[in-house]
UniProtKB/TrEMBL annotation:
The lineage of its organism: Bacteria, Bacillati, Bacillota, Bacilli, Bacillales. The chain crosses the membrane at residues 64-83, 95-117, 129-153, 165-188, 200-222, 273-303, 323-346. The gene is spoIIIAE. It comes from the Bacteria. The keyword Transmembrane applies. It comes from Paenalkalicoccus suaedae. Keywords: Membrane, Transmembrane, Transmembrane helix. This is Stage III sporulation protein AE. The keyword Zinc does not apply.
Length: 355
């Protein structure tokens, strides 16, 4: 029982994840055999860890190729700006610099939107993953006596999964996008200053993100602890009554039930640990890609600035900061998904301890 994953929906999510890995890193996964989803012993996380350096270099190479056009445009824009400043009557260079800057801004914002879409897809995959494994977690939680906890966690976690995707795509990401656009326009424009407005939007995005995380942690921890205590006291009372009401049979029944509960607790902890590792795997590769993109934008800004392209360097640096803010949003959502699984595991363990 400990080596199986019985849910078909869960295996469908894992199949989709494996397909995506082969689509993005097919040449790196040629020697890695597909594990049997119904046999946990067939998994080899060490092989995946050994492949991380190759995956990192693959992402660096791919993003260098993807962002090379933006880097070339940034250099051309800097050169045209110098031509315009050295020959003030050379209107062609001014027009060319403006066109290049607009084209650069368009490509940068398009790249930013691709990163946003990629993060939204990652959050959706994590949501599908948790929904697929939630019935199994709740079944094991009930098997250790967590009836009230299961009744609380089922609607709460489903609501959180739906709300997290909606909240990020409707509130947090649009605020980050507006901050990015306004900060980029303010950096290029010589007459309009939008620094304070951009800072305000960034602060609003961070506040909205922290507020959502605070509400989730508060509800899950406080209410989860209350339901755990309720389950523990109820099972302890039932155990006392059954042991004393029927002197011999009741004691045998209680001992047998205690053995089953301990076995279920071991299974629940094993599956919970496996789910945590899978969740980290789901978010690890997107996190690596997004972090590399943010670092490359900042590196381009560092290269362009000494050449005299202060405005272009500022735009690239602001894009890097915005992508890092999206990266932080992904980490926050991942932490909340991770915490949801951990709280379910701890809740079952606490039930046994309270008995």
């Amino acid at each position: 029982m400990m080596n199986t994953l019985p849910t078909d929906e869960g295996t469908d999510v894992l199949d989709d994840l494996w397909t995506d890995l082969h689509t993005d890193y097919g040449q790196l996964f040629t020697e890695l055999t597909k594990p049997d989803w119904h046999d946990l012993s067939s998994w080899s996380f060490q092989e995946l860890l050994h492949m991380l350096p190759a995956i990192f270099m693959h992402e660096v190479t791919q993003q260098l190729f993807s962002l090379s056009t933006i880097f070339v445009l940034a250099i051309l824009g800097t050169i045209m700006l110098h031509l315009h400043q050295s020959v003030s009557t050379f209107r062609t260079s001014a027009i060319a610099a403006t066109v290049i800057n607009l084209l650069l801004l368009t490509m940068v914002l398009h790249s930013f939107m691709l990163v946003t879409s990629y993060i939204e897809q990652t959050i959706a995959v994590m949501g599908h993953f948790l929904v697929a494994f939630l019935p199994y977690f709740l079944f094991l939680l009930v098997s250790v006596g967590g009836f009230t906890s299961a009744a609380f966690f089922h609607p709460t976690i489903l609501l959180f999964i739906q709300t997290s995707s909606w909240y990020m795509t409707t509130i947090v990401f649009p605020l980050v996008l507006l901050h990015t656009i306004i900060s980029a326009l303010g950096s290029i424009s010589e007459t309009i200053k939008l620094t304070k407005l951009a800072s305000l939007l960034r602060s609003l995005a961070i506040t909205a993100l922290l507020l959502f995380m605070t509400v989730f942690i508060g509800v899950m921890s406080v209410q989860g602890a209350a339901t755990t205590v309720t389950d523990g006291l109820a099972i302890r009372t039932l155990k006392f009554v059954s042991s004393n009401a029927v002197p011999v049979v009741g004691r045998v029944f209680t001992d047998a039930a205690e053995t089953m509960v301990n076995a279920s607790l071991l299974v629940k902890n094993t599956v919970g640990l496996f789910a945590l590792l899978l969740l980290l795997l789901v978010v690890l590769l997107p996190a690596i890609k997004i972090a590399i993109i943010a670092c490359m934008y900042y590196a381009m800004a560092a290269v362009v600035e000494p050449l005299g392209g202060n405005k272009i360097a500022t735009v690239l640096a602001e894009i890097s900061k915005s992508i890092l803010l999206l990266f932080a949003s992904l980490l926050v959502v991942t932490f909340m998904f991770f915490l949801a699984i951990v709280i379910i595991i701890i809740s079952g363990n606490a039930n046994v301890m309270l008995r």
